Amino acid sequence: YRALSHAGLLGLMGSRPHPQRNALYRRCRPLLSRQAREFWDARAGSIARGIGGAGRFEHYFELFRTRVLPLIHRRARIDELLVPRERTERENFYQRKWNTRRWRLLFRLFFSRFVMGRLGRDPSFFDYVEGSVAERILQRTRHALVELDPAQNPYLQWILTGTHTSALPRSLREEHFAAIRDNIERIEWHCISIEEYLANNPDIKIDCFNLSDIFEYMSQPGYEKLLEILVAHARPGARLAYWNMLAPRSRPPSMADRLVCEEQMAAQLHRRDKAFFYSRFILEAVRP
């Protein structure tokens, strides 16, 4: 954001094709910390492919896109999937052209607990997961292909094509670029656990928490303990937003006097959530 134009940002991320991503990186490099420079200097290949795909789970999706998906559907069929359609047309396309026996078989194999634990997620991710991992993800993928519009889903497009063909995440959209660039100094980075950060700042009070899916890696008692800590550092009315992917986590009954579950709003947002692979969205508010 500081060193590049909007087009350069999209090129470096990998959202759009760019022939000289390493040149874009060299423009950003002087602004990085020593640790960040050392990290990226050792990953020229990741830069050349687009830094948005450098993570472990992104590599896993790349394997699916380059090794598995071509065994199921040709690129022309993938492009056809991403054409804008009404809901009924998406259902027909899914049933007639996409949801083949080979799609279901190879999808279930690649996104199985065993394969994902070896290649995608840390195996500890599955310590608190029950039931079929692949079946849940397959159901959510159907939701993304039928109930949502693939032509408007940047996350689905990234998984299937490695780029953003017709949609961008909000943070990468041109209309938000200047506002992010002009206010980026307000962001603070703390590369420590949330427990350590709050312990180092005992008097801090927080208005809102975007917690992603961090509770997936915790036992139920560990989750409840951290939730107690977060609420203790929250202002009245503060909201906690987080996702369940495979391990169910939501406010325990013991905290009903301090946290309100906003289930109706959470369900409405989850139905529209383009990050489709999560099984549930949780929204809770701290009581006044």
Low-confidence stretches at least 5 residues in length (pLDDT < 50)? none
Cα radius of gyration in angstroms: 21 Å
Question: Strands of the biggest beta sheet: in what spatial order?
Answer: 1-2-4-3
Beta strand %: 5-15%
Q: How many distinct beta strands?
A: 4
Integer average pLDDT = 93
Succession of helices and strands: HHHHHHHHHHHHHEHEEHE
Plain-language structure description:
This protein has 288 residues and is an alpha+beta fold. It is built from 15 helices and 4 strands. The protein has helices at residues 6-13, 21-28, 34-41, 44-49, 56-68, 75-81, 87-98, 101-110, 113-119, 133-147, 154-161, 174-183, 194-200, 220-232, 263-272, and strands at 206-210, 234-244, 259-261, 280-286. The two termini are 38 Å apart. 21% of the residues are buried.
SSE topology:
Blueprint lengths: L5 H8 L7 H8 L5 H8 L2 H6 L6 H13 L6 H7 L5 H12 L2 H10 L2 H7 L13 H15 L6 H8 L12 H10 L10 H7 L5 E5 L9 H13 L1 E11 L14 E3 L1 H10 L7 E7 L2
Parallel strand pairs: 1-2
Antiparallel strand pairs: 2-4, 3-4
Helix pairs in contact: 1-2, 7-10
Q: Could you list some keywords that capture this structure?
A:
four-stranded mixed β-sheet, 15 helices, 288 residues, alpha+beta
Give a brief rundown of this model.
This protein is an alpha+beta fold and 288 residues long. The chain has helices spanning 6-13, 21-28, 34-41, 44-49, 56-68, 75-81, 87-98, 101-110, 113-119, 133-147, 154-161, 174-183, 194-200, 220-232, 263-272, and strands at 206-210, 234-244, 259-261, 280-286. The chain contains 15 helices and four strands.
